[in-house]
Amino acid sequence: MPQQHRQLVFTWASGFDSCIALQMVENVPFFQTLAYIVVEEQGYVKEALSTLFFLFGASSILVGLVFYLLGNNGLGKILYFFPSHVLVGCIGGIGVFIAKTGLEVTSNSLFGVQMMEKFHLLIPPFSFEIVLRFLSHWAHKTGRRLPLLSPIYFLSITPVFYGLIASGLISYDQEYFFPKVIGDCSNEDDDCQSVSLWAVFTLLDFKTVSWNAVAQSVPTVIALILFSLIHVPINAPALSVSCNKEIDMNQELRAHGYSNVVSGICAGGLQNYLAYTQSVIYSSSGGGGKVSSLAVAFLTACLFFVGPKVVQFLPRCMAGTLLLHCGVDLFMEGVWESVGTYDYFEYTGIWLIVTIMAMFGIEAALIAGAVTALLTYVVQSVQHVKSVRGAMTGATLRSSSYNRSMDEFAILDSDVTGRIRIIVIQLQGHLFFGNVTGFTSEISRRILNSAQPLIAIIDFSLVLGIDSSAAKAIMKLQASLPSLGVKSSVFVPGTDQGFPCELPLSQELQGSSGCHVCNDLDEALIIAEDQLISFVNPRLLEDKVRDSVRRVGQDEIDLAVDLLRQKCPPHESRLLPRFVSYLKRQTYCRGDTIWKQNSVGEFACLLVSGALIARLENEAGTSEEVSVGSLIGESSLISGAHRQSTVVAMEDTVLYVLSRDSWLAIKKTDPEVAQVLYEITTRYLILRVSHVSNRIFETRCLPI
Fold first, then answer.
1. What SS3 class is residue 40?
2. CA 291: distance to chain centroid?
3. Which residues, at least 6 apart from 257, have a Cβ–Cβ distance to it below 8 Å?
4. Are 588 and 610 in contact (CB under 8 A)?
5. N or C: which end of the chain has fewer CB within 10 A?
6. Rounded to the nearest 10 degrees, how much is the dihedral formed by the CA atoms of 435, 437, 442, 447?
7. What is the mean pLDDT of residues 471-490?
């Protein structure tokens, strides 16, 4: 009965027009394990059926609830996180189990040496399977598409078997057939009673349920739920491709949820899913639409009434061949077809899962799968993922600190004392115990092979996670850097939230001598540049501090000249007073907009006091502070281009403004002074282009 219910549910809830719902045959090992637990607890009595039906129904309801919650919360993609090779290994192991079950059904005995006593019962399914394999191979080799070959073949087994008996090739034996499902009490010697077809719905009695057996079954039910989840991310997308139909994975999850809950409520129905193979055959045969799906549900309802009477006339070899064929297919899919598609370690894991499932059962196989997935992750992370993405000197990198004096730039541009003595090492991925030795030794090797770096910047912007072992290794690495000739180290977590680990790594590193922690690479470069300058002439940085204090009482005109002098070569200094004479003083209050992005560039301005911030309107909050001494808007003034950002005053601000009219007058009447703006603009462009390179190195993508 649950079959027609699940078919009706999928007809109503699924996005497919040609969906066929079936019981999860892959879950048969779980059902068998649950039966063993119940029989061991209660024995072969009617009460055991009550407990077993309760477990079947409860597990189906739980599976349905998990499916529904995943779909209702938009978590369909979470199902794709099952490791592929673990899934393939489980498929292969299930194939072995189903094939073994087919042989047990045919021989009516447990798999083992005792089965050889009934080997004559196994000859028919092996023979039918060999013939079907030959026909399938012939159809594939000749390029014929015969989607109905297998179902027609299986339906023909029963008449063929009766024909073999009639011809005398097989002697009649009741062992070849299934026993009667409904009791027949015509023989007084039989210990049976007349049983109604509807009696199955009366078997579940909560008073006779063994709750001790239910408690023992919890681990198996949990494993059953997890294993049931792996079918939807395979069947639904595969059917979508075969039927050329876009689907909503969350909708399909909800449909599976409804179907399994309904199945569990209906007299302990088993778990079910959207069957890929049957749905494809149904679709290719012209099936589709709601009416057609309803007809399928009606036919399955009819089989509920006639099936128990018909099954006693079916030979065991028909079911045995079906199970054997299905098991071999699944085994080949898991073991043979995966050759060459997985690396050596993953393929070994597939065989491990198959072997353990065949020998010890599904729960042990799932545990082996989890262990295999973790080991595969560790091994592949060590072998294939390079934790050290790259390293380079700071020779071509520039920070956003443009307002340095010519003496400072001379030090930074030197081949002996400059940025070439900075090494930037960028890490990536997950740093954990498996690659600790690799990335720490690689960092040391890079530093030793570099041109005697004085400062090491280690960038963690692309690191996704750091475990405790890696965090402690990073602290040991920082302590060892002085022995490699590094005077100062700067660590960059890439975010103001610190490093992606539980250990307070930022505080631990900042507490070390000669170590700094910066939120981004630009801030790290500013610190590194300041330290290079301090190694050569610390008075330059001290003079900068004194100058900032002295400017408070300095005449604004003289201050403007001094600020421009830092940006020009010495031979241009005599022109600066004349250049400043063309500038007009303007004041802005906190929050005032200097200009808007995409507006026409009608003026350039020198920031004499206060603070500004430039924001890019079309990016995700990208901004840059403008410090005192900066000349902004010069490129738009010269080229006539539109503004690239919006500039706003962060506090009361004084600007010296060069208007377009004044600029045109300078070019016409005083071209020697115009050269000052050209010099500053060219220098700014060089610095800004270099700074853009820093952002590409840091993020490998657009700043969004």
1. helix
2. 39
3. 64, 65, 66, 67, 68, 69, 71, 72
4. yes
5. C
6. 130
7. 92
585 forms beta bridges with 656
Please choose, from the candidates 545, 13, 6, 576, the residue with its C-alpha nearest in 3D space to the C-alpha of residue 255.
13
* Amino acid, single-letter form, for residue 288: G
CA-wise closest residue to 15 among 248, 341, 297: 248
Token code pair at residue 502: 């539980």
Q: Which two tokens stand for residue 453?
A: 């770096």
Short-list 253, 266, 313, 258, CA closest to 67: 253
The token pair that represents 634 in the structure block: 């010069």
DSSP string, 311-359: GGGSBHHHHHHHHHHHHHHHHIIIIITTTTTS-HHHHHHHHHHHHHHHH
**Sequence-separated (6 or more) residues with CB below 8 Å from residue 88:** 333, 334, 338, 342, 350
Contact 520, 492 (CB under 8 A): yes
User: Which residue type sits at 243?
Assistant: C
Q: How does strand 488-492 pair with strand 515-517?
A: parallel
Structure tokens at 284: 């290719």
Q: Is the dihedral of CA 491, 494, 496, 499 positive or negative?
A: negative
Burial class (CB within 10 angstroms; exposed 0-12, middle 13-18, buried 19+) of 226: middle
CA 456 – CA 423 distance, rounded (Å): 5
Phi and psi at residue 462, to the nearest 5°: -100, 10
Q: How far apart are CA 367 and CA 372, in angstroms?
A: 8
Instruction: Answer yes or no: is pLDDT of 516 > 70.
Output: yes
Token look-up 């604004």 returns 556
Whether residue 603 contacts residue 660, with contact meaning beta carbons closer than 8 Å, is answered with: yes
Cα gap 353→96, rounded to integer Å:
11
Contact 259, 21 (CB under 8 A): yes
- Please state the pTM of the whole predicted model: 0.54
Angle at 479 between CA 473 and CA 485, to 5 degrees: 125
Find all residues with CB under 8 Å of 366, minimum gap 6, and list them: 90, 223, 226, 227
- pLDDT score at 458: 94
* Long-range contacts of the stretch 403-408 (C-beta < 8 A, 24+): 403/563, 403/566, 403/567, 403/627, 403/628, 403/629, 403/630, 404/529, 404/566, 405/540, 405/544, 405/566, 406/566, 406/568, 406/569, 406/570, 407/537, 407/540, 408/529, 408/533, 408/540
- Close Cβ partners of 678 (under 8 Å, ≥ 6 residues apart): 638
Round the average pLDDT of the chain to a whole number and report it: 82
For residue 126, the SS3 value is: helix
Listed residue (505, 458, 14, 82) closest to 236, CA to CA: 14
Report how far residue 7's alpha carbon sits from residue 507's, in angstroms, rounded to the nearest whole number: 60
DSSP string, 50-89: HHHHHHHHHHHHHHHHHHHHHHHTT-GGGGGGS-HHHHHH
Mean pLDDT value of segment 375-386 = 71
Q: What pLDDT is attached to residue 186? A: 42
- Mean pLDDT for 647-665 is 92
Q: Pairing relation of β-strands 422-431 and 455-466?
A: parallel
